[in-house]
Structure formats: structure tokens, C-alpha cells
Design goal:
mainly alpha; 10 helices
């Protein structure tokens, strides 16, 4: 099922309405959808490198708005709506463990790491941010920075290096971003436990 969903999302890049689909996928990815917007963003930016930054802006704005929807979902409708979504994806136990062990500072850090590297998935962190009451303005600022940095970096790489960088991005960028996110988390934990 996941492969069919991935293939369907990828097929949207060839449509005339691709920008609308990119906005839609980026929006729902930040709150409920499993497939990242990168799946649609990458082929669009490679096909039209002159529009890569435009696509990055569309994806960033839609992703931040979707993150706000996830925050609202967690803040106002956790038991009624968010729990079933997390349960459907098999993330409810992980979510509850994260909820019980996370402080405010760690959640803000996770917002940045999930925005940059999908570590943990962004939908989990947006909902969690709403559940624990992360300040909405801090949430929005961190989402703009993290998601904007991710999409703008991808746009820059694709404009500068074109098709050859696509395989690198698809195969290794997630790993590199995850490693960077892991370093950020370790630094946070180190600073927290030293004080």
C-alpha cells in the first residue's frame, strides 16, 4: 500500500496542477499524511529548475500551514481526532512515550529536526506540540525556519547540480540530515544534563 501511495504522489509531478498538488501534499504531510512532500517536490524542481525556488516557497508555506493544523489538532482534538490518526500509522505508542518523556525545550528541538530531516516524522511533532501547548508563535517560527531551510536547500542543490544530484538527494540527503539532527539532539541532551 505504501509503495502505491508513493507512486501516486510521484505521478502528480507531471500534471498541470502539480503546484496545487505540491501545496496539498506539503500541507497534509505536516499533520496526517505518510508520504513526504519531497517525493513531489524533487521531480518538479528537476523538470523546471527555473521554478525550483517557487516550488520551495509553495512547499514551505503549505507545510507550515499544515503544521499549524497539526498543532490545532493536538491542542483541541487530541483524543477525538489525533489519537486515531496516530494509531492508524502505528505511531501512538511512540507518541505517548515521547509525550511522557519530553520537555518543552526538547519539543522545540524536535520541531527543527523533524522539519529538516523527518526525525521524528513531522506529523508526530506538530500534534505533540499542540498537546503539550508549545507556544504557537514559537512553533510557527521554528516550522518556517526548519521547513524553509529544507526546501530551499533542495531547490539550491537541484538548480546548481541538476539531475545528477537527484540520486544523491534521494539516497543520502535524508541520512545526512538525520545525522545532523541526531547531533543536535545529542548536543541538547548533553547541555541539559551538564546543567
Amino acid at each position: 500500500m505504501l509503495r502505491r501511495l508513493y507512486d501516486w504522489t510521484l505521478s502528480l509531478a507531471a500534471r498541470k496542477s502539480a503546484e496545487y498538488w505540491l501545496a496539498f501534499i506539503a500541507f497534509i504531510e505536516s499533520s496526517i499524511f505518510l508520504v513526504p512532500a519531497d517525493v513531489l517536490f524533487l521531480p518538479m524542481a528537476i523538470a523546471r529548475p527555473d521554478k525550483a525556488y517557487r516550488y520551495a516557497l509553495i512547499a514551505t508555506v503549505a507545510s507550515v500551514l499544515g503544521g499549524i493544523a497539526g498543532w490545532l489538532l493536538g491542542h483541541f482534538a487530541y483524543e477525538a481526532l489525533a489519537m486515531p490518526v496516530l494509531e492508524f500509522y502505528g505511531k501512538l505508542d511512540d507518541f505517548e512515550a515521547l509525550r511522557n518523556s519530553s520537555g518543552y525545550g526538547l519539543i522545540v528541538l524536535l520541531l527543527v529536526t523533524s522539519g529538516l530531516a523527518h526525525l521524528p516524522p513531522i506529523k508526530v511533532v506538530t500534534i505533540l506540540s499542540g498537546v503539550i501547548g508549545v507556544n504557537i508563535w514559537l512553533f510557527i517560527l521554528s516550522a518556517i525556519i526548519a521547513r524553509g531551510a529544507r526546501f530551499l536547500l533542495l531547490a539550491w542543490l537541484l538548480r546548481r547540480y541538476g539531475e545528477p544530484i537527484r540520486h544523491f538527494v534521494e539516497e543520502r540527503l535524508g541520512l545526512i540530515a538525520a545525522a545532523a539532527a541526531g547531533v543536535l539532539i545529542l548536543l541538547y541532551l548533553l547541555v541539559r544534563y551538564l546543567h
